[in-house]
Amino acid sequence: MGTFLYKLAVFLGFVSAIVILIFGYLFFEPFTTKTEEVITVTNKERWGIENGKYFIFTENEVFSNSNDYYHNKDNADEVFKMFKVGFTYRVTVVGVYLPFLPRFRNILNIIETSTKETFPAK
Asked: φ and ψ at 61, to 5 degrees?
C-alpha cells in the first residue's frame, strides 16, 4: 500500500506542477512577451461568425486580433476597423510566434500608422 500512495503522490505532484506552469505562463505572458512590431497589412479576415476574433496577415507572419481576458483586451472590433490593406503600422503585440504551432501573437493596439513601407528609426 505504501508504494501505491507514493506513486500517487508523485503523479499528483507532477500534474500539479504542470498545471501551475501553464497557468503561470498565461498570467505572466503579457508582461514577459510584450513587444513593438512594424507590420504591413497584406490581408485581414474575420474568424467565422465569432465576434471579437480577427486575423491580420502580413508578409512574414499572421497575427491575431482577439479579445482576451489574460491580455486585458476587449477592443478587437475597434482595432480591426483601423487596419487597412497596404498600410504600415507600428503595433504592440503579445505572445510567442512558433511556426510549427497554430498559435498567433495577439495585437493589443496600434501605436502609429503610415502609408509608407517603413517607419523612421527611433
From this structure: -160, 155
Q: How far apart are CA 82 and CA 98, in angstroms?
A: 26
In degrees and rounded to multiples of 5, residue 46 shows phi and psi of -90, 145
Kindly give, in sequence order, each residue whose CB lies less than 8 Å from that of residue 87, ignoring residues fewer than 6 positions away. 40, 41, 113, 114, 115
8 Å CB contact between 105 and 84: no
- Please state whether beta strands 35-46 and 88-94 pair in parallel, antiparallel, or not at all (unpaired): antiparallel
End-to-end CA distance of the chain: 66
Spell out the SS3 assignment of 65-101: EECECCCCECCHHHHHHHCCCCCEEEEEEECCCECCC
Q: pLDDT (tens digit, 0 to 9) for every residue of the chain, 122 residues total?
A: 679 899 999 999 999 999 998 888 777 877 888 999 999 999 999 888 877 899 999 998 999 999 887 777 888 889 999 999 999 999 999 988 877 777 889 999 899 887 665 555 55
